[in-house]
Specification:
Elements (H helix, E strand, L loop, with lengths): L1 H27 L11 H32 L5 H22 L10 H25 L14 H27 L1
Amino acid sequence: MKGLSLLLGLIFGIIMAAILICIIMKKITTDKSLKAKYDERQEVVRGRAYKYGFLTMCILNILVAFMGKPLSKYLEYGVLVFISVCISLLVFAGYCIFNEAYIGINEKPVRSIILLFAIGVLNIWLGVMNYVLQRGVTEKRLLKVENVNLIAGVLIIVIVIMMIVKQLINKKRLG
């Protein structure tokens, strides 16, 4: 019975999140569409960013393959892989942000920053709550896969900080 209620809660949460994302995306874009639109220059920059992110992930996954055993004293293998994906996403996002290809031409930057900040804070909160419910790390000082919300939240907050820095650079350049 407990498993069924957890499954129903998960399904309900996913449905509510999807509805909320659709509503928020309509508020972020200037033309009320659900998808960001990019010009040709932004598409080229995003393609280059995908390449750099992918290469970063390949290199990091090779390192994880070789360093997984020694680091398993501190982190589960899945956490190492997740961290490599997060660093790759950070490379992608950073390249796009500082080359002005992260925000679509039909998006409002301030609303995007606020949304990402809220998602980051929520992930950090969920990660901390999960950490507390798990009573911290285990005896082996192992960070488990259940704690990846904390890592994801930090990733999103770092992306928000990069977006704010880019906004300040643009204001200083124009002002």
